[in-house]
Design goal:
heterodimer; A: mainly alpha; Helix Hairpins; B: mainly alpha; Four Helix Bundle (Hemerythrin (Met), subunit A); 7 helices; 70% helix
Chain lengths: 110, 178
């Protein structure tokens, strides 16, 4: 049962699975808020990958530096900003067109 | 013990992520998203990243979820019979695409000898840090983020605060009623 013990590859595969679930959610949904949820899942998957790399890092100068965790902090910051702006845009669109269906928001389609 | 915890957390994480994309009502998706964020915090705890785990709980499970629930409340679908979380007509294409991306990433991350590649990394110049290394993980993150004299990420940190300020003002301006 040695393969059950978590290694770097386990966390990378977990991140990859989570990333493609989020990608499916972002591509296949019509509700704009559901698309935003898919994007949040993708960002979380990338964070898991970065933190796993910082934990399993074997290079001596970098292993003391926790660079992956710093990157994860910045990703969380940008994700919070992105969520705030995106939800403000969704609310604004809903006020004008009374729908959040991205199939019906086609003003710039030609 | 850590192995068991990892598998439990990973399975709950993937299952609730599937619930987020698969639920028929979008409020259920939003509630499953809370479980996703909490389980991701559990993964961070397993990886000795306590600070990231706390930040994850505070920002994602606290703030972002509340923001999403408020947006859901303000953008109600008027027709009761209508699905609140429908799939688009080309959802199969999204399924194929995400499966391909996932297969590619999993192949790339499983069948490369990442450790042997990392050991031959030529960049070793960053090791010249004269500051004493804190033993605590969180204290070390603080030193990496704020320290003006040691090797740190002060400038990106300040730029991140500017990004947050712009996002606050932008969100207020965009969502304002006029």
């Amino acid at each position: 049962m040695d393969f059950l013990h978590p290694t770097l590859n386990h966390f990378l595969v977990l991140g990859a699975v989570l990333f493609c679930i989020g990608l499916y959610g972002a591509l296949a949904k019509r509700n704009a808020i559901a698309i935003l949820m898919g994007i949040e899942i993708m960002l979380n998957a990338v964070n898991i990958t970065l933190v796993a790399f910082s934990f399993y890092n074997t290079v001596k100068p970098f292993s003391t530096y926790l660079t992956g965790q710093i990157f994860a902090i910045f990703i969380i910051t940008v994700a919070a900003a992105e969520a705030a702006v995106a939800l403000a845009m969704i609310i604004s669109i809903y006020r004008k067109r009374s729908t959040v269906d991205v199939g019906e928001i086609n003003l710039m389609k030609w | 013990m850590a192995t068991l915890l990892f598998w439990v957390v990973a399975i709950v994480l993937v299952g609730s992520a599937l619930m987020v994309v698969g639920a028929r009502k979008i409020v259920h998706s939003a509630l499953a998203l809370v479980v996703v964020f909490a389980m991701a915090a559990g993964i961070y705890l397993l990886l000795n990243a306590e600070f990231i785990a706390i930040v994850q709980i505070l920002i994602y499970a606290g703030a972002v979820t509340i923001l999403i629930l408020f947006a859901l409340m303000l953008t109600r679908v008027s027709n009761q019979n209508e699905l609140t979380n429908p799939n688009s007509k080309t959802w199969w294409a999204a399924l194929i695409l995400s499966a391909l991306v996932g297969a590619g990433v999993i192949l790339a991350s499983t069948f490369t000898h990442s450790t042997t590649l990392l050991e031959k990394s030529p960049v070793a110049a960053y090791g010249s840090n004269s500051c004493p290394l804190p033993t605590n993980n969180v204290a070390y993150i603080g030193q990496l983020l704020y320290s003006p004299s040691c090797y740190s990420y002060v400038l990106p940190f300040e730029i991140a605060s500017l990004v947050l300020l712009v996002a606050i003002i932008g969100a207020i301006v965009i969502a304002r009623e006029d």
